[in-house]
């Protein structure tokens, strides 16, 4: 069953349907935009990859970009382009970081809204992954669906946040780094959490979970 209204998305000339609720827009952004963001990522001192996000797996793989005016402007243009694909009145976050996975590395399995596996609701409706480089290996896979997919540079991959779309990334096998940026479409209720400075709401009680704040999530 389709979960949302995707009429505009499906009308895009580069639309590809991978599963009922997983889609790709091929060549969503240009090679020039991809190269601009990758060049920035590779130009910063290595320590910037390690300074701010120290959460387990993310350590050394996560680069904040919001402090760079030109990159932030480019990200807002990408966000505006993504927003044209849908009619729903969602809260769309800014793509404020670049993620890298290097040779031999993959990504742990998770859902983007951990309502079912952790009992925590962050109100993510859809997740968007924008691929900034070509690489070997590094396929996204969905263990509950028995499905995997390999995107190409410039592609926008979209899937829901719910547990059925639990996913991980297989190890990169070549020397080229897997660079992506991400953003999320949230239910408008997420604004209430942001106003309280927290990330999650308890699924059963409906109360904000205070042990993980927004500031802690980005350290």
Distinctive features:
single chain, 23% helix, 219 residues, four-stranded antiparallel sheet, alpha+beta, globular, eight-stranded antiparallel sheet
What does this structure look like?
This protein is an alpha+beta fold and 219 residues long. The chain has a single domain (7-188), classed as Jelly Rolls, CATH 2.60.120.620. The protein has helices at residues 7-10, 31-43, 48-51, 69-83, 115-118, 190-195, 214-217; strands spanning 15-19, 22-25, 62-64, 91-92, 97-101, 107-110, 120-121, 124-131, 140-142, 147-149, 156-160, 167-169, 178-186, 198-202, 208-213. The strands form 3 sheets. Strands 1, 2, 3, 4, 5, 8, 11 and 13 form an 8-stranded antiparallel β-sheet that branches. The longest helix has 15 residues, at 69-83. The model is unreliable at 198-219 (pLDDT under 50).
What is the fourth-level CATH superfamily? q2cbj1_9rhob like domain
Fraction of residues in helices? 10-25%
Global morphology: globular
CATH level 1 class label: Mainly Beta
Strand content: 25-35%
Number of strands: 15
Radius of gyration: 17 Å
CATH architecture annotation: Sandwich
- Flag low-confidence runs: 198-219
The termini sit apart by 38 Å
Average pLDDT rating:
82
By secondary-structure content and strand pairing, the structural class works out as: alpha+beta
């Amino acid at each position: 069953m389709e979960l949302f209204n995707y009429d505009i998305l499906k009308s895009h000339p580069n639309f590809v349907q991978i599963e009922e609720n997983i889609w790709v827009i091929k060549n969503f952004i240009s090679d020039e935009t991809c190269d601009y963001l990758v060049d920035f990522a590779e130009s910063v001192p290595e320590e910037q990859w390690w300074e701010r996000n120290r959460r387990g797996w993310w350590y050394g793989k996560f680069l904040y970009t919001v402090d760079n005016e030109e990159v932030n402007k480019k990200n807002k243009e990408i966000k505006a382009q993504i927003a044209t694909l849908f009619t729903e009145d969602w809260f769309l976050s800014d793509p404020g970081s670049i993620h890298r996975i290097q040779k031999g590395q993959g990504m742990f399995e998770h859902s983007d809204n951990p309502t079912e596996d952790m009992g925590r609701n962050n109100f993510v409706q859809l997740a968007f992954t924008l691929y900034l480089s070509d690489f070997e290996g590094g396929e996204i896979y969905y263990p509950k669906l028995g499905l995997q997919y390999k995107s190409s540079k410039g592609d926008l991959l979209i899937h829901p946040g719910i547990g059925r779309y639990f996913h991980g990334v297989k190890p990169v096998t070549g020397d080229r780094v897997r660079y992506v940026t991400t953003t999320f479409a949230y239910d408008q209720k997420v604004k209430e959490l942001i106003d309280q400075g927290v990330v999650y709401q308890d699924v059963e009680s409906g109360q904000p979970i205070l042990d993980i704040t927004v500031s802690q999530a980005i350290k």
